[in-house]
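S.,

Sequence below, as promised.
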Amino acid sequence: MDRARRRRGGGELAVTLVYVPAQVPPCPPLTSTPTGAQDLATDLRAAAIAVKNVQGRAASVAAPAWQGDTAVAHDHAATQVAARLEAAEAALDMAVTAADRFAARLSRLFVRLTRINADRAEVNERIEELATEVAAATDDSRLSELRARADVLHGRATALRDRIEGWKAARDQAEDDVVAALQGLDSVAEGQAAAADPSRPRTGDLTRQLRRLRGDPVALAAWWRGLRRAEQEALTTEHPGLVGNTAGVPMADRDEANRGELARDLDFYRQRDEDGQLTGKQERALDNARSVDDALDEYADQTDDTGAHLTTLLAFTPDLHSGDGGVAVGFGDPDTADHVSVNVPGLTTDTSSVGSNLDKTYDLHLAALEEERGSVATVYWADYDAPSGNPLNPLDPLGQADFDGVALTGKAEAGGERFSDFVDGVRGSDQGPPAHLTAIGHSYGSTAVGHALADGVPVDDAVLLGSPGVPADTAGELTEADVWVGSKDHDPVSLLGGGDRGGLGALGHDPADTAFGGTRFETGDGALRAEELLHNHTSYFTGTSLANLAHVVAGADDEVSEQPPRGAPGGSHLTLPELLVAAGSATAAEGIADAAAWTWEHSKLGGML
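The prediction came back faster than expected:
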């Protein structure tokens, strides 16, 4: 209650009596977090994957090729081990499902908490304003108005307190439920009961259906969402690599499968390393897994609007692509975002370079969000065998070993096919209205994206950055999507494409050329100094270029600033030899040699071309 008295000439002239509600106290925080529950589920999932691997091995050796008493004993022992592991499998699958449900409930609680805190802040501000006005009142002329406002605030404050109490009860119930679920699976007898439960999913038929539907992402997504959560989880722990890398499986479930596989790989390969049993191939797989794990850790504190991890691990193939591995990491969920972009890096890309490339993708994600044109998911995709040679130094021994991949289009074509499959998956598992989808290719990645575009990959916009060439003479021949080109005149790689200016053309047409017909956006040209040429090529995700990328990704085409194509009035007519001479070399030949050395040195950073 606030009682305001005002005196005039020593006498009390008016008393304003208004009951102002007390401030609503803070809502207590979540004692468990959505990300913490996700990490718990990942650890349990990794354990389930490991146990199933061992169980599968035990079952496979239970019937030895030899005969006699030793064979019988071996078969008996292996069968017993497999049976005991079956109980552990069933218990772990149920534990993972419980942890997943807990994470989902915590995310819903996080959203409710965010709304409660916003409403609480607004109500308390109104209460403070009312208290100030009541204290300043000099007569009773506003008494009715102030009382009416106080009554409304009393109702809102009471409702907020009830919401807070309901939220606290829901939080406590969620924690009690997950504890009870896990406690109900912590004994051998409970594991055996779980294994014998007739409702337990059997993965044989499910696996066959999953494999049969591969190649039809829309049908697979519908089938997957029709499964019980326990069935999805059983498939995920039985075949994490299959689930995590199949187009059409919802992206959140791919993330769970791939994170589980990553955690299992780290545990397995680290133990083999400690035991001195790690093979050369496994050592590379371990290095790849560590690189992905470190990259995810860098963004572990970044969360989405539900309090869950902002990052999603959408592809994880650590032993593919000649040992370079493959990975795709998203910021946000492509299945629910309004705007989705997929960024494909180029030459020398391997899994060890995921960290530096994620930084660029995250910068684009933040810039696209600042456009405020809807929700955004930004994906870094490097699940193809990018060449590891040096295009400007074919005489280098390492470059020569992979020169066919650099100078020819074979790896770009194969990469384009894999990229198309990934984009088909993005389209297939999309929820709600189809997302506005942008494909971005940088350097050799633009050539790979170009081959995907030529094959009809379903995107709305295509962005080609620092491109050495694409497989069409015009944008219209390449794709029906809108084609945007970022190409610095002082970027030597962007002058490799064919066209009227006499580029090499080994990888296709220069998309910045006036005859190509794409929309060239402003990037700046970079410094005209020899030591800066490769920096010019690697800096498309900064400054004006980044701003224009964000405009395209967010669908703000009218905000894009353009520059003339090469060969057009007002555009550059610079050729590669002319650039190298102008940058400080005495001759074009010396310039090519210098650029080759710088290219190789910079390419060691991974994925920079």
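The two ends are 70 Å apart (CA to CA).

Coffee later?
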